Amino acid sequence: MRRLHTTVGLIAILAFATAHAASDTASAKKALRWKLRAGQEFRVHSVQSSDGTITGDAGQEHEKVESVADELCRVEAVDSRGTADLTMTIERVRLRTRSPRGNVDIDTNERTEKLPMDIALTAELAKKIISEMKVRFSVDNRGRIVAVKINEEAVRVWASIVPGWSDRFSEKEITKTLRQVLPVFPESPLAVGDTWNDTLEFSRPHGTGFQKVYVKYRYAGPTAHNNRTVDKIVTEATLDWGDEKLPHGVTVKVVSQENPGTIYFDNQTGRLVEIENTQRRAIEYRREGRTIREQVSATSRIEIVPCPSQ
Questions:
Q1: Residue 163 included in any domain
Q2: How many domains does the chain fold into?
């Protein structure tokens, strides 16, 4: 089972006293908007980890996965309506897994001569894709993805060697990934406690697990974070199979799931600061009287930092 990482979270509410006048409540509302400027550069650092256990008739199988990625985003242009064109390049990826099927340690900045042949091949292909791929995308001032363009032909040469990689490194799938990272803000200004909803899709092939996530966002208001005041949004999500086709005779029961997360947005400078989410779930798969139980605990943290020259 693939470990899932989504942008999700729990809730904090600040209620206004009913004695406040309507004009006071209106003045407290805030429109959250991006305010990017041409020439800005940001470093994006993401860390994801999962700890999973599968229990069945044959016993238990335990797997730990940690991935770290570093990317550089540059704002190429911003139009009069606030829609920004950005270019993203991947600088480094590290992957570490521990499971009964074998251990994997890949760092795209390291040499691969001492790795097992199959892992070394994967690492070299990842290096080629990273060196070739550039993602160009446009985002409006509410965080909506307007367009995504990658140099697919250059990437496809290397991605086609590994089954499934060509689909994953496509404009369609990268669009899904960007949508998971960039929350779309409502058009109307927000008061503390206001909520809105969105439906996101996972960037993964069919047959590998949950396909959709329903996210509820709640504006929690200004908060102190890393020695400055930013706007906090808390979220809660529900994972869904969508139109996923399960193998014949297999039934699935989601025993429990919790998907809390937090988004920090600097509305003064108009940019994301940090995204954190946690996932805990237990699922049972049944077929012909046999049951396999999967338990997963996962965390994700994405930090966006302006380059020193900004």
A1: yes
A2: 1
In a domain, 14, yes or no: no
Phi-psi region of 177 (alpha: psi -120 to 50; beta: other; left: phi over 0): alpha
CA distances from 104 to 2, 63, 94, 100, 211 (A): 15, 11, 10, 11, 26
Note whether 63 and 55 are within 8 A (CB). no
CA 269 vs CA 46, 170, 192, 266, 273: distances in Å: 21, 31, 20, 6, 10
- Residue 237 covered by a domain: yes
Supply the range of the domain harboring residue 114: 33-306
Read off the pTM.
0.83
pLDDT of 13 reads 24
Predicted pLDDT at 23: 35
